[in-house]
Every structure is written in C-alpha cells, then in structure tokens.
Specification:
Organism: Candidatus Kaiserbacteria bacterium RIFCSPLOWO2_01_FULL_55_19
InterPro entries: T2SSM_b (IPR034756), Transl_elong_EF1B/ribsomal_bS6 (IPR014717)
CATH class of the largest domain: Alpha Beta
Mean pLDDT: 82
CATH topology of the largest domain: Alpha-Beta Plaits
Keywords: Membrane, Transmembrane, Transmembrane helix
Low-confidence stretches: 109-113
Number of strands: 4
Pfam families: T2SSM_b (PF10741)
Radius of gyration: 36 Å
Strand content: 15-25%
Protein name: Pilus assembly protein PilO
C-alpha cells in the first residue's frame, strides 16, 4: 500500500503545483511579457524602417543641386516675409519707372475667421496673402513693372488692376497681388 500511496501523493502534489503555480505564471505574467516583447519588436522594426527611409530621403535631398534648392526656396519660401517682398517690389518699381505710393496687406474673412473650409486650408501646405498696391507712372512703366513681376523669382499672382486715367500720360494704378509661401 505504501508503494502506491507515495507515487499517488507525489502525482497529486505535482498536479497541484502545475495548476497552482506553473499554469497561472505561464498564462499570466509570462504571456504579458511576451506580448510586450512582441510590441517592442514591432516598434523597433518600425523605427528601423523609418530610419532607413529618412536616410534615403536625406541622400536624395543631398543629390539635388544646391542652386536648385535656393531657387525653389526663393520661388516658394517657408515664411511670408512681407517686408522683404515689399522692399523687392519697391526696388522693381524704381527700376521700372513706377512709384509705389501705398502697400497694404489685405485680410479677408476667409483667411482670418473660422469657416467650413478651415480643415481644407489646414491640410493645404501652401498659404497665401493678398497685397493691395497703389502706384503712379506711365503705361510703359506699368508694363515694365508687370514684366518684372512675371520674371520674379518669387511666386506672385496679379489678381486685379484698376487704372485711373489722366491727360498727362501718368496714370494711377490700383493692383491686387497674391503671394504664396509654404506653411
């Protein structure tokens, strides 16, 4: 009887240890640790992929000619720089023979207020500002000024021109110009 009792008690103790300690530990904390390790491995793989893509993009950017990057930055700068633009327009006007008398930054409800298109504007990487210019000069000077704007390195749109005539050949011009920049 003793020969059967000791193995049976040992078997019952083994089953008790398995269900009392081994199974809860294996399915509890060890499973959580494995899930954490799997999530960390997934994050590590994503970080490695990101670093690889970042290095590829940096190599592609470095392959671009620096003068082309400078021209692109001049075409579509990453800041508004109203003062620099106004100085450039004033210098262009002086070279063209036209005199700028007033420059105003126009603010409209569409650009300052909240509207339904706000999410669309936020998603658009290009921002714009309207400028109102008043100028005085001859028609030839206006043509030279507009040709200078057309050849400008900065991306500008002339939206509206109003000409007030005179008998002397010197006219007053009201222009609306839109300038663009990267947000």
């Amino acid at each position: 009887m003793n020969t059967r009792l000791i193995p049976t008690v040992a078997f019952v103790i083994a089953i008790g240890i398995f269900f009392g300690y081994v199974a809860p530990t294996w399915s509890g904390s060890i499973t959580r640790e494995r899930a954490t390790i799997a999530a960390d491995n997934q994050a590590l793989a994503a970080a490695t992929t990101y670093a690889t893509q970042q290095n590829e993009l940096a190599a592609a950017r470095n392959a671009i000619n620096p003068t082309d990057i400078a021209r692109l930055t001049a075409l579509l700068p990453d800041a508004v720089d109203n003062v620099g633009l106004i100085l450039d327009l004033n210098a262009l006007a002086a070279r063209s023979g036209i005199a700028l008398s007033n420059v105003d930054v126009l603010t409209s409800a569409a650009t300052t207020g909240r509207s339904a298109n706000e999410a669309v504007r936020a998603a658009n990487p290009v921002g714009s500002v309207d400028l109102a210019l008043s100028a005085v000069g001859t028609y030839r000077a206006l043509q030279a000024f507009l040709a200078g704007i057309e050849r400008s390195q900065r991306l500008l749109d002339v939206k509206d021109i109003v000409v007030k005539g005179s008998d002397t050949g010197v006219y007053t011009y009201q222009m609306k110009i839109t300038l663009y920049w990267l947000r």
